[in-house]
Structure formats: structure tokens, C-alpha cells
Amino acid sequence: MKYKIYNYIAVFFSMALVTTSCVDNEDLEQLDPNNNAVDSFWQTDQDALQGVNAAYGSLLTDGTYMRSTPLLLDARADDARTNSPWGSMYNAGHFNSNVADAAIYGWAYETYYQGIYRANQVLTNVPGIDFADEALKNRILGQAYFLRGLYLFHAVNLFKNVPLPTELAVYYPQKTQDEGWAQVIADFKAAADLLPNSYDGISGLDAGQKGRATKGAALGYLGKAYLFTKDFTNARTTFKQVIDLGVYSLVANYRDNFTTANENNSESLFEVQFSRDAGGVDLGWGGAPASGWGKTSARAITYAPRAFGWTDVQPTWALFNEFQEEKTKTGATDPRLDATIFYNKPGGMQLYGKDFATFYASSPGDLNDLFCRKYQNSDGEFADEYDWRSGINERLLRYADILLMYAECLNETGDTPGAYTYIQMVRNRVNLPDLAVTKPGMTQEQMREQIGHERFLEFPLEGHRFDDIRRWGWLENPTKLAWLKARDTEFNSYTKGREYYPIPQLEMDNNPGTVQNESY
């Protein structure tokens, strides 16, 4: 089962930040007299596997992919808007997060470091354990490097200059963003060297288990880290390694990437494993996983259409309109529109077993509005999302992303003609015309704009768009910023420095000398 890797050990480990300079690390190593497991743990291969499972557990809480991280990634981009009545959520989308209120962004920050700490426990203790199966040991260490790299990736990407814990210590000073990206790259490199292509066909405690990090996932994120630091040459080489693995392919139906029907499919490099049937009823708001946890996602209820959930996030009209710009080879609308957005479609559209036009007939505002369809349990099996128990896996990295990032690297390294091939692979799935015919001979700059368009329509509401906007320098470009403001009024609130979230005040208080991000 997809949730098998989350049979957590009961004990785990919260990070205490101690700033007193007169205490040695050794003085803090004390056993809990009420917990006999602490001093006897990290003895066997089973302990090691449970330890890395706990590091995966930090992907499931409210601070990460249960709810907060998708919000932080989506809310500020021009494919999404938020009019949430909750100020913390509204402010996240309007570049106005409050240093005095760490809700959402602070929960994410805290959980990233919880995950980092758990991964460091594995990396510190597992090398000293004797394994009968050395390949299993390498896989466990590889997963710990991957998870530490992933949590650091988010911390550096969202908060800029952050601590970089790579060993267990008392105090972790703030580092520069360049140092942060260097550590992320090092971790993904180490993970790629240790991880298998797949857990099928191997022996050991983890044999056949879905959801564990693989070589492809590590290489994919390594390439992404290179791309985010504008190292296009290394990014190009790394993405080609993923392609050459021969493991991944695009699924025929685009929407299969956002439902429970086809999870862990051939397009998925890494996804967070949620399950409505995983047992337990408690929501995973944070802390150590407990036996009562439901291990479910709150994304669906948070993004759900009006009357089916909270409607805290909605698609923009800029996104809807851009889907209209190019027809398929048969003259139809891009099918990704209907997979992404609920709207008053001519001829009708179903949501949760209801006809859109009929259901919203008495509410003109809703009838003429747009709602999220991605990651919704809306095909009629469930009446709404109010049980807070979505089991849809969060797809963090898809093969379509690898193809379009590789095309971008080809363009940036002088092979603009070569970029056409990989862009067209993504376009072919939705039956769009041959770009080499409709727009032949594009310049490098024209191809950059085209890649921006292609990525906008392939990945809306998947947490990629604002990262793209920031790394492409659009916020520093007056023409582009004006264009973004015209498409999404939330950009009218943007000021320089607000492309990152603030360092939470608790971190500022616990780590003297920490410098707050610009404009906060």
C-alpha cells in the first residue's frame, strides 16, 4: 500500500535551539528516563528504516504538503488568487506576510527543519549500524540525503538566507543563499549516487515500496537546483541523465496526474503519499506522527469550489484566458483547461455529481467565477471536501517538468532549435500543433517567452509559477512587473524583497545575529 512507509516509530525527536555559549554538545546528551527506547534505538536495519520513515513523515504535516507549502508556492503567482477570510492566508498571496504572525509560513519553516533534523539523525547514526544487506543501508542513507536536500531546497527557495544543519549540534548559524544552494546540490548529488532507479526488483525491507525517493527524483531535483542557480550547463547534463534513465514517460491522460486513479505513475518522479484509508482520523497539524493520524491532505478542502470547501485559492482569469490562445489540431480548447479549472462551460461541466450551471444558478457571482479542479475529489464519488480527508498524492516533480526544464537549458546554452523537440513532447499529449511549424526559427529570447507560456499552461496550481517568475527576473523587470500587475492585481502589493517570506520571529529570537529578509 502507498502509505506503508509511514508506520512511524513512536519516538521522534524535536529540535531544541539552545543559544547559551557555555554549554558543550556533550552536556546536552541526556537520556529520557521515561523513554527506554532512546538509548536502545539505532541498533538494527529495522531501526534505520523506521528512522528514515520518520523523515518522510515531515512531508505530511500542515507545514509541508498537507496544506501550507502548496499555499506558499501557489498563492503569489499569476495563476492563482486568494481572497481567504483568514488574514495569514490572504497575506501570503498579497506579499504581505506579517513578521508578528508566523501562521502558515512559520509552520512551513518549522517543519522543514523538523525534517532536516530527522534526516540528520539517520545520516549520523545509520553509518554505525551493521547491516547484513549493504545495499539496503545505502538506500536508506540515499533517502536521508534526498529528504534533507528537499527540505533545504524549500527553506532556501522560500526564505533565502537560512541555517544549514548538516550534523547534530546546539546552534546553527544563518548562511547565505549561495551557501544554501551549494548544500542542496551536494545532498542531491549524494542521494543520486546511492539511490536505485526503482524499488521493484530489489530485495530487502523496502522492496517494492512506492513513494520512496529514487535516483530519478534525486537527479531531477539536482537539475532543478542547478537551474535555479543559473548553472544551465550542469542542469542540462543532469536533466539529460534523467531522460536517459528510460524510466519515465508522460501518461496519456493529463488529469491522471491529479487524482487517486493513477498515482505513482510513469510520469511521477516524486510524490507525497496521502491516503484516505491509512487509518486514524486526526489531522496532521504538526509534531511527531501519532497513531491517530489520518495521513490525509487538506489541499482539496482549502482549494475547493464554493460550497464544496473553503475556496481559499482560485485560478485567475489570466490563466483561463491564456488557455484560449491556441486550439488543438482539431480546433478544440486545450484539454488542460478542464483538468485545471471549474467554470460555466458551454454544454455543461460536472463537479461533485452536480451540474455547474445548475448548482450555481442562484448565485451569479459564483456562476461567472473560476474554481480549482486540480487535486479535487470531484468526480462524483464524494459529495464535497468537508471531511478534510483527501487521499490524493501531491505530485512534487513530474516528467513533463523535466522535459520543459531540459528544453529551457538547451535554449540557454545556445541550442534553441533543439528545444523544440522536448517542448513538443509535452504539447503532443494535449494534441497541440507542431510548434516548429506554427512558430519556426524562434530566437533565444522568443523561445524564452514561449517556454514561459508552455510552463504556465502545463503546471498551474502545482507550485511552480512563482518560482519561475522570480528566477527569470521578471520582478526586477519594470515591463514584466507591469504585465504581471495587469494580469493579477495581487502584484500591486509587491515590493522588492517580498519575493521571499520573512524569517519567523521565533527563529530571530532563538538565533541572535539572524538578519531578517529585506523589506520586513
Automatic annotation (TrEMBL):
SUPFAM superfamilies: TPR-like (SSF48452)
Record Pfam families: SusD-like_3, SusD_RagB
InterPro entries from the UniProt entry: SusD-like_N, SusD_RagB_dom, TPR-like_helical_dom_sf
Lineage: superkingdom: Bacteria
Record's keyword terms, sorted: Cell outer membrane, Membrane, Signal
Domain RagB/SusD per the UniProt entry, residue ranges: 267-520
Signal sequence, renumbered to the chain: 1-23
Family under the similarity heading: Belongs to the SusD family.
Protein name: Starch-binding associating with outer membrane
Organism of origin: Flavobacterium defluvii
UniProt lineage: Bacteria, Pseudomonadati, Bacteroidota, Flavobacteriia, Flavobacteriales
